[in-house]
């Protein structure tokens, strides 16, 4: 109930044209990787998935933002069924350990039927360029090589709600789903991350 | 219920329904005869357009029948959605965010509020004077001066076209005519029927007889034959609707000619903007037509001119 109301509201605000250019909506397990430029990103991407797909697709989100108050925590945990991960190193924990923890959480969240929405840049960018991807995506794919990685390009969401603003301007946006890719057996970390990033950037040019 | 006692309105809407039925039947007949792929694409687009016309006519009829509030709210919504499509196409920067919030959520509703209460003295200057200066100030205050003039001008243009110009259509509801009181909905209906009729007639004449392009670099689908035939037929259509207006038959024809010509120019200018921004349509909201702005592009030029010509020569 709440989830379909929220999804409709997100669709009204974002007014997206959705193109499944490289694949169709499917029940197969996937990791949707998208560029990140606005707080709206995962809600909008999630809202434009067909309802049956929405229920089994879990956004990966930063705990420091989504666990900050009761409402956000409720939405993240109960409505979006989000996977909350620690991204900023808290005092005393080495960054590498946090990264491993996050990857373990994502592997567990995938289980054997769920899909994930992941922003491999790790943080919001300006919207002009896609930043280099963090290595978590690689480690996740090495542990789950059968899961397809679907590149997604989100256009104009940073114009609807730029960094540092609270109220959205109703500009029309566009969501493009690209062709799925998989980690090759002998592919190095850098090569794979670069290939994944290129697949997202290519959708921008094609849009 | 305005429809119960306004005979002219009943006849105009009745005429529209008859026209749409004829168009629907004709569309189905043509669809049966289409053979090759190109003809099929054209026919599918034609039928999508006709279906969309049904929906648009019903929405328009309901809003007019509800009374002045209905038409004002309808055009306010059209303006809001048109502004959304326009702003999407122009290169704004994050520093413009506040100025855009003001444009969407304060200036647009305020303009229609003033139109709704018939405050001519203020609605005719709100955007060209106050919003014009305020937007420049607000964007200057943001501190980001990159492409300052282009950004300010584009947002001002968006408001002028999508909100200010379009709001002249429902403003006709409050326009007093010497010796005729306030004819209200029939003037609005006359404008909308002639301007949209002119678009359709230009499309039909263009498809039937179009050979020579009139503006190949701006709007490659517009032809001289479509333009001349469509404008002439729309002028005739307007003259034949004289009985619903405060005008004599020749005056109605002349008004229709002005509406058709300004409507054509509006479509041409909006095509130039689309071409500049590298898109074919402003949006995808109406099947077969593109965006809202693609459907009302001619109205953005025709409405303010028709309003002021009428006010100048017949106002009372």
Mean pLDDT across residues of chain A: 90
The profile of the biggest β sheet of chain A is: 7 strands, mixed
List the strand order in the largest sheet of chain A: 1-7-6-2-5-3-4
By DSSP, the count of extended strands of chain B is 0
Report the CATH architecture of chain A: 3-Layer(aba) Sandwich
Strand content of chain B: under 5%
Mean pLDDT of chain B: 93
- Characterize the biggest β-sheet of chain B: none
Helix content of chain B: over 70%
Provide the CATH topology of chain A: Glycerol-3-phosphate (1)-acyltransferase
Rg of chain A is 16 Å
Number of helices of chain B: 12
Radius of gyration of chain B: 20 Å
List the helices and strands and how they pair.
The complex is a heterodimer of chains A (207) and B (316).
Chain A: H1 2-14, E1 17-20, E2 30-34, H2 41-47, H3 51-54, E3 57-62, H4 63-66, H5 70-79, E4 83-85, H6 95-110, E5 115-118, H7 136-143, E6 148-155, H8 157-160, E7 174-177, H9 189-206
Parallel strand pairs in A: 1-7, 2-5, 2-6, 3-4, 3-5
Antiparallel strand pairs in A: 6-7
Helix pairs in contact in A: 1-2, 6-7
Chain B: H1 2-5, H2 7-33, H3 37-66, H4 68-89, H5 97-116, H6 120-123, H7 126-141, H8 148-171, H9 185-209, H10 224-240, H11 249-277, H12 292-314
Describe the 3D structure.
The complex is a heterodimer of chains A (207) and B (316). Helix content of chain A is 41%, strand content 16%. Chain A is built from nine helices and seven strands; from the N terminus they run αββααβααβαβαβαβα. Chain A is globular. Chain A has a seven-stranded mixed sheet with strand order 1-7-6-2-5-3-4, with helices on both faces. Chain B has twelve helices and no strands. Chain B has helices at residues 2-5, 7-33, 37-66, 68-89, 97-116, 120-123, 126-141, 148-171, 185-209, 224-240, 249-277, 292-314. The model of chain B has no long low-confidence stretch (mean pLDDT 93). Chain B has 316 residues and is mainly alpha-helical. Chain B is globular, with a radius of gyration of 20 Å. Chain B has three domains: 1-59; 67-174; 175-316, no CATH class. Classes of the chains: A alpha/beta (207), B mainly alpha (316). Chain A binds chain B through residues 15, 17, 156, 158-159, 162-163, 165, 167, 169-172, and chain B through 80, 84-85, 87-88, 92, 94, 97, 100-101, 104, 283-284.
């Amino acid at each position: 109930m709440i989830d379909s109301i929220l999804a409709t509201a997100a669709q009204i605000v974002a007014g997206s044209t959705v193109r499944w250019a490289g694949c169709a909506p499917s029940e197969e397990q996937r990791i949707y990787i998208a560029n990140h430029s606005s707080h709206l990103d995962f809600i909008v991407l999630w809202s434009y998935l067909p309802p049956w797909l929405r229920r089994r697709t879990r956004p990966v989100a930063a705990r420091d933002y989504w666990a900050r108050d009761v409402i956000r925590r409720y939405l993240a945990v109960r409505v979006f069924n989000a996977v909350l991960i620690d991204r900023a190193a808290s005092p005393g924990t080495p960054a590498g350990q946090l990264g491993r923890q996050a990857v373990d959480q994502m592997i567990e969240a995938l289980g054997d039927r769920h899909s994930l929405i992941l922003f491999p840049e790790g943080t919001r960018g300006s919207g002009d360029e896609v930043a280099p991807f963090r290595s978590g995506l690689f480690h996740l794919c090495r542990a789950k090589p059968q899961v397809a990685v679907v590149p997604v390009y989100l256009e104009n969401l940073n114009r609807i709600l730029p960094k540092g603003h609270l109220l959205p301007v109703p500009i029309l946006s566009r969501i493009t789903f690209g062709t799925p890719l998989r980690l090759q057996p002998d592919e190095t970390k850098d090569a794979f991350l670069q290939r994944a990033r290129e697949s997202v950037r290519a959708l921008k040019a094609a849009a | 219920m305005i429809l119960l006692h306004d005979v002219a309105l009943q006849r105009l809407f009745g005429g529209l329904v008859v026209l749409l039925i004829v168009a629907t039947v004709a569309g189905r007949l043509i669809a049966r005869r289409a053979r090759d792929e190109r003809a099929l694409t054209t026919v599918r687009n034609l039928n999508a357009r006709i279906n969309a016309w049904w929906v648009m006519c019903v929405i328009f009829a309901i809003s007019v029948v509800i009374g002045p509030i209905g038409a004002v709210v309808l055009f306010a919504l059209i303006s809001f959605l048109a502004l959304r499509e326009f702003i999407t196409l122009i290169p704004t920067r994050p520093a413009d965010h506040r100025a855009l919030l003001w444009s969407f959520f304060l200036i647009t509703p305020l303009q229609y509020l003033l139109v709704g209460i018939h405050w001519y003295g203020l609605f005719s200057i709100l955007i060209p004077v106050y919003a014009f200066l305020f937007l420049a100030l607000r964007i200057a205050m943001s501190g980001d001066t990159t492409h300052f003039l282009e950004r300010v001008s584009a947002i001002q243009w968006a408001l002028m076209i999508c909100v200010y110009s379009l709001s002249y259509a429902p403003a006709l509801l409050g326009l007093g005519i010497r010796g005729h009181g306030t004819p209200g909905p029939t003037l609005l209906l006359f404008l909308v029927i002639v301007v949209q009729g002119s678009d359709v007639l230009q499309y039909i004449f263009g498809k039937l007889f179009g050979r020579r392009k009139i503006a190949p670099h701006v709007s490659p689908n517009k032809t001289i034959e479509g333009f001349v035939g469509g404008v002439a037929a729309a002028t005739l259509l307007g003259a034949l609707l004289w009985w619903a207006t405060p005008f004599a038959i020749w005056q109605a024809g002349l008004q229709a000619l002005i509406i058709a010509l300004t409507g054509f120019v509006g479509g041409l200018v909006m095509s130039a903007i689309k071409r500049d921004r590298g898109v074919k349509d402003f949006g995808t909201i109406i099947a077969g037509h593109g965006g809202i702005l693609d459907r009302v592009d001619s109205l953005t030029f025709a409405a303010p001119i028709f309003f002021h010509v009428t006010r100048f020569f017949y106002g009372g």
